[in-house]
Amino acid sequence: MIKHDFKVQTNWQGGRDEIGTVNGDVLSEQISIPASLGGNGTGTNPDEILVSAASSCYIISLAATLERAKFTNVTLTVDSVGTAIFENGKFRMDKITHYPSISVPDNEKENLEKRLPKLIEIADNNCMISNSIRNNVAIDITPTIL
């Protein structure tokens, strides 16, 4: 078994209306409760970080999957939406939907269209974040080929 630690430090002082920080090897950001949930909306928030982690992991996994499938001239954009719900007195992330847009040369589109359902599945199954939240957060993927 291979093990790797990812370390972050968070800091907070005061109550729910204050601003904290989260810092990692590269990440350095202010955090607060989102304005949409009655907070001050400064910096990012855990919900956005979760969706960002899922989206960035998925795009990297998809890029690697497409590369292994010999699609090397690819441009990817993934729009991701996290849907949180309030249920049984608690907020939780219910679903994350990824909308990957995949641009390939015209002469590769037909081949990609045939193989895309399997490649989408492989990329999701190779994404560490998807594997970590699966069975707790639904993951939907709706691709578009440009």
From TrEMBL:
Pfam families: OsmC. SUPFAM superfamilies: OsmC-like. It comes from the Bacteria. NCBIfam families: perox_SACOL1771. This is OsmC family peroxiredoxin. It comes from Staphylococcus devriesei.
